[in-house]
Specification:
This protein has 128 residues and is an alpha+beta fold. The chain has a single domain (4-127), classed as Roll (Nuclear Transport Factor 2, Chain: A), CATH 3.10.450. It is 28% helix and 47% strand. It contains 3 helices and 6 strands, in the order H-H-E-E-H-E-E-E-E. The model has no long low-confidence stretch (mean pLDDT 92).
Length: 128
Amino acid sequence: MASNDTMVIGQKLVELCGAGKGMDAIDQLYSKDIVSVEASADGPMDQTMNGVDAVRGKNQWWYENHEVHSGQIDGPYPHDDRFITFMKYDITPKAGPMAGNRFTMQEMGLYTVAKGKIIKEEFFYHMG
């Protein structure tokens, strides 16, 4: 069973991200020592990033390099100190090998919560 903190944090993350306020979610909900793990390295970003400043930078880079036509987030789906969200984006990359090619990206995010903050995020995704 999920802890109350896990549900509250998960619900707030979904609420903020669903309203297009992902950077506010980072500022309010993430530990300063957050660990972020992508399914693979993307552009100039490492697969694993450490610290809230690195996560802010990764998100800023992503939004600067992708046109987001629409997005949705569902969840949270809790389990103990973790929860999962489902995200779906209709995007067109502005740079890189996919530049100019519009596609749909589906992503699952696994978040770990401790002491009222998200301490780890891990992403699993499919594009196509």
